[in-house]
Amino acid sequence: MSGPRPVRAPRGTELSALGWQQEAALRMLQNNLDPEVAEHPDKLVVYGGTGKAARDWRSYDAMVRTLRTLKQDETMLVQSGRPVGVMQTHEWAPRVLIANSNLVGDWANWEEFRRLEALGLTMYGQMTAGSWIYIGTQGILQGTYETFSAVAAKKFGGTLAGTITLTAGLGGMGGAQPLAVTMNDGVAICIDVDPRAIERRIEHRYLDVRADSLEHALQLAVEARDARRPLSIGLLGNAAELLPRMLAEGAPIDIVTDQTSAHDPLAYLPVGVDLDDMAAYAAKDPAGFTTRARESMARHVEAMVGFMDAGAEVFDYGNSIRGEAQLAGYERAFAFPGFVPAYIRPLFSEGKGPFRWAALSGEASDIHKTDKAILDLFPENESLHRWIKLAGERVHFQGLPARICWLGYGERDKAGERFNDMVASGELAAPLAIGRDHLDCGSVASPYRETEAMLDGSDAIADWPLLNAMVNVASGASWVSIHHGGGVGMGRSIHAGQVSVADGTRLAGEKIRRVLTNDPGMGVIRHVDAGYDIAETVADERGVRVPMREG
Ligand code: NAD
């Protein structure tokens, strides 16, 4: 019987598969399970609750074995983390096709999913866990940086210098907020009830200082703001208590958001409950705890709305706190928008989204060379330059060295082709795996997040991610995946991913040009179809054909 063991992708140029396309899939599967990358590698869990790379260890072994013998004209089929077939295809076809966690509509809920999972019939693939292109916390840091950069562009003349952001939650993902704000030159006050969360963020250099009190936090923030100096400040306390207090005292806050784990009421500390008693109370009386947590969230959101009324920029950062506050009876919970309709949708309309690549050589120098190539290719993009420079200084690689940045339609293909040329010329030590998050411009239907409040009301239309997967298969991606439930849970999202391997061959260059044009092209046409002006302009200027606008 095969069981848990440490997994690490091989480095260097020696192949254990029959070609680089297969080798890349193998190394990226193994990299997702590298203890430096995965949250619980022994359980095959990569990130995001229970997002897995393989269904069980036997399936993992079968995938490794199959990838090592897979030919250039064969395709391995993966059904929720288990290899179920190998078919003869052709060299333009993906080497791996993946479908994870999909359930028929009426059955698409956690209860049924967990029943099937317990029977060993499925697994939760999250987004990049089951599609083998997770790169550690760099992804969330960059996404958060991009969001705050979009806030700066929309409201503050392109920089957060001279502004104060107020937020809460310094956990696994929320902990990226202070650094993302300071990377945009702003000041952040970040509240958390758990002193360990504050200490951990300071240790990892994501957070600069800890304040002794609310007054101290405000004093530090105002000084830094006036000097236009970036600074992030940790403040211990309950957000549902501190936000109303700060509002009442007229604290000079410009931007408010939140990343406490509000999506799960048993993980949000109600006012009046001690942190040390939280777990026992939640376990003993989950219903009572939920009621109290929701009441606190209502006070928290009420204060956020108050800041909005006072002129601050306020948004929900994808943690469902508005929905929970509404359940507690607070009527204005949805008075402020989610971050996608507020800032990200204009980027999605241009086909922009999280583009990422990993160096299969294992050499950090390969990534540094690609960083330089990106800066040369897009000299005019200031925010991109700032990110690449800061990422080079501040991001520690986890597993295979990797980089993420947001590029749009007409940009990703340029970068991909340049990378392939760099592999061909020997400038890079080995090929690159080029992919993206499923949270992208034209690859996801998720009405509580990526497709919240679409202009034409098409939030729940899931044809788009399916078309996205099909066009990537038709364009020559190396592996393509269709998942359900990533990010927001069962029944709430359908999304697709692709990874393309730049192995330096002419064939790879041809495939990459098509995939990295058509994949973000889905974002442009999806937003043209929904009636977004920016998307229409991009389609006109960059030559994206939309039949309903022709003739
Ligand atoms: P986490 O559980 O690791 O951290 C949550 C933090 O909130 C903890 O440190 C906890 O101490 C703190 N907290 C709980 N109750 C509090 C209260 N009343 N006052 C102050 N602090 C409190 O969670 P995470 O991984 O950081 O994610 C946070 C939330 O953000 C989740 O709901 C997640 O789904 C959401 N999220 C959304 C996106 C997105 O949509 N792009 C991205 C990242 C995270």
Automatic annotation (TrEMBL):
Keyword flag Protease: no
Cofactor note: Binds 1 NAD(+) per subunit.
BP GO annotations: L-histidine catabolic process to glutamate and formamide; L-histidine catabolic process to glutamate and formate
Catalytic activity: 4-imidazolone-5-propanoate = trans-urocanate + H2O
Domain Urocanase C-terminal stretches: 346-540
Keyword Repeat appears in the UniProt entry: no
Alphabetical UniProt keywords: Cytoplasm, Histidine metabolism, Lyase, NAD
Residues annotated as the enzyme's active site: 405
Pathway of action: Amino-acid degradation; L-histidine degradation into L-glutamate; N-formimidoyl-L-glutamate from L-histidine: step 2/3
Annotated Urocanase Rossmann-like domain residues: 136-343
Organism: Streptomyces dioscori
Stored PANTHER family: UROCANATE HYDRATASE
Family to which the UniProt record says this protein belongs: Belongs to the urocanase family.
Localisation per UniProt entry: Cytoplasm
UniProt gene name: hutU
Pfam families per UniProt: Urocanase, Urocanase_C, Urocanase_N
Protein name stated in the entry: Urocanate hydratase
Sample GO molecular function, one term: urocanate hydratase activity
Cofactors, names only: NAD(+)
EC number annotated for this UniProt entry: 4.2.1.49
Its job: Catalyzes the conversion of urocanate to 4-imidazolone-5-propionate.
Superkingdom in the source lineage: Bacteria
Gene Ontology CC entries for this record: cytoplasm
